[in-house]
């Protein structure tokens, strides 16, 4: 009898506890604090990333802090921002590395402090990254190569305007690009110049290349400011039609120049998706809904040419809505 | 204590809990079914209502746009003098209008009024007015969303409304590029349930405005526009998604409401389930309390009754029981048991008494028996004495015989004073000593204080008889028999000693346990049995004997002052 009553009470307590725990999971709340540390806050690419991140912020009701250094070379500023995020209680950092190697220590430290790390766009040399989201840059490089080769010309001579050697993205893009170019017998030569990631530096770099290698008939700018700079170098020097330009990333200037015949192709990444997915993955990591993975989450890449730029798909890839 | 079977309280508990669980489960299922139907219906109704509201607002907006289009048409038909001023004001009060442009018969741009910038010089592509579509424009036209390509350095998304101009000189068409900012303010904040939303699409399946348009453009989200395009006004529930569709006045657009069955309903169901589980727990607790009360009222008294019965089984004689129980059924059972116990004890006592009485009767019958051999041997001796003229001895012999029989009978009493018993023994010894021609001598040592206590009659005689037959008879030298009576605490101890041939263990065993083989008179066993029946197992006879040296028989009995026999009956 005594034992029976004990069992009864035990069962009741268990049931109530179960019920309460059910209630608790149902009403679990509190905003997650996510820091967004990227390479720049200026270019249209990153503005589009932020737009995506903000859309996800609204959808998942998280607190979002968006920061980036003034120049796309200042990895030390990024490291300081990571440390600051850690101090200010960030639960997750969505990160885009300026330097594959130099940002690694700061990210490792943050990850060891229990912060979830989501890398978008540019990878960092750390084993502690939970999720990587972005363009498959080697594949995108190959697409760029295909765009360069999409011509009737008998010979092709390519000049590449790439950004800092330390950035993994640039190197991977160039790797994929060269891979495709080198497999085509029409390609006579490939030269690369590495410059800072600004329009001016891009323009100067392109002009240097053209001066040093007058045989160049195709220029490739491997990110947004470099694409614009390269395009300007061609447009402003009356080379439109003589030197084809292929740009990686797009903005309004690129589109204008494409309409004027400067660009023969633009490789449009999906920065909005990177921003959105970055926050979405950070959120689901914090909620424990996804586990970390070493696989890249690939965001789509589109080749835009003068022919398809105003098709519905071209418009969607080129022009942010609203 | 391990028992087989299930206890009543367990059965009750299982039945109650089982019933409650079954009832709760079926109630839950029933509830779930009807609740889900109801909730889906509610959600559908809610969706339709929301979509209707949105469509009313968008219709208003479209009507307003129609009016504006009319005003613009009038302004354009008026000629070109005051246009700049008109459009300057118009574009300022309607910031959602990106550009108003006019086209000639061939579709070439004539004028463009806009605040967004200058029209670019080489206008190769104009998505606002496509020459190859001019045939579609005649009855008024609303385009799918596109970017406005009129300007340099700006590509805003817009919807173009095209209308023909009747009275213009060269101008045949007017095109109005409107951004979705106004529509977005109508649609963005519309929620259906917690995750539902509305969007605007045209009949061809192009999405005109969607709160998450950029997500759609970035391929992060898909809307099944082909399926939705097939839907007529009304609602559709498919894959836990509720679509509500409402066409708009212009017959080109429709408002689509998307909401999710799962979220709204499963949350309510979860809430309901929680309430049900809670009430289930309460009912279960109540059931357990009831079960506990029942087991207290029923099964515990029954178990107690059972243990009482076991106790009764173990020791029936000294068992006492008071009926107990709160439930009537148990009380009846308990009272019956109590009656039964009393009756059984009564019966047991009666059986025991009857057995004792039977034994006593048997004994009395035995005592009443006169050993015929002893009698005629004695009478033989007397007649022989008379013949020889030893009259004096004969008289003493007859007297002894008479005393022997008188005491033997003792008016039917079992217990007689020790004094009488000693007289009886002495009479017997007297007779036997004549008969055995003084082969033995005898003596008595009796404590005076013992003589008035009572003892069983014919206690000493069978023992003396045994001493004579088995001890003295055939002895070459003189035999001696000593009878003593003394007190020993609360007991009286009589002894009969002889110096005869003694007995070995087998003989003692035989004497103590066998009835007399001649079926006449009383044996030692009978004496012992009587002592034990009357006074209990602590009393009786013990025999010490050493072969060739003699035997000592000890008789132990309590001090008894009055006739016990009478008291017992």
Descriptive key words:
heterodimer; A: 322 residues; alpha/beta; Rossmann fold; 2 domains; 6-stranded parallel β-sheet; 6-stranded mixed β-sheet; 12 strands; elongated; B: 569 residues; alpha+beta; Heat Shock Protein 90; 5-stranded antiparallel β-sheet; 14 helices; 18 strands; 19% strand; disordered C terminus
Structure write-up:
- The complex is a heterodimer of chains A (322) and B (569).
- With 322 residues, chain A is an alpha/beta fold.
- Chain A folds into two domains: 124 residues, 3-Layer(aba) Sandwich (Rossmann fold), CATH 3.40.50; 147 residues, Response regulator (Rossmann fold).
- Chain A is 47% helix and 18% strand.
- In chain A, the strands form two sheets. Chain A has a six-stranded parallel beta sheet with strand order 2-1-3-4-5-11, sandwiched between helices. In chain A, strands 7-6-8-9-10-12 form a six-stranded mixed beta sheet, with helices on both faces.
- In chain A, helix 8 links the parallel strand 8 and strand 9.
- Chain A is elongated and about 60 Å long.
- Among the domains of chain B are: 44 residues, no CATH class; 200 residues, Heat Shock Protein 90 (2-Layer Sandwich), CATH 3.30.565.
- By secondary structure, chain B is α+β, with helices and mostly antiparallel strands.
- In chain B, strands 1, 2, 3, 4, 5 and 6 form a six-stranded antiparallel beta sheet that branches.
- In chain B, 50% of the residues lie in helices and 19% in strands.
- The C terminus of chain B is likely disordered.
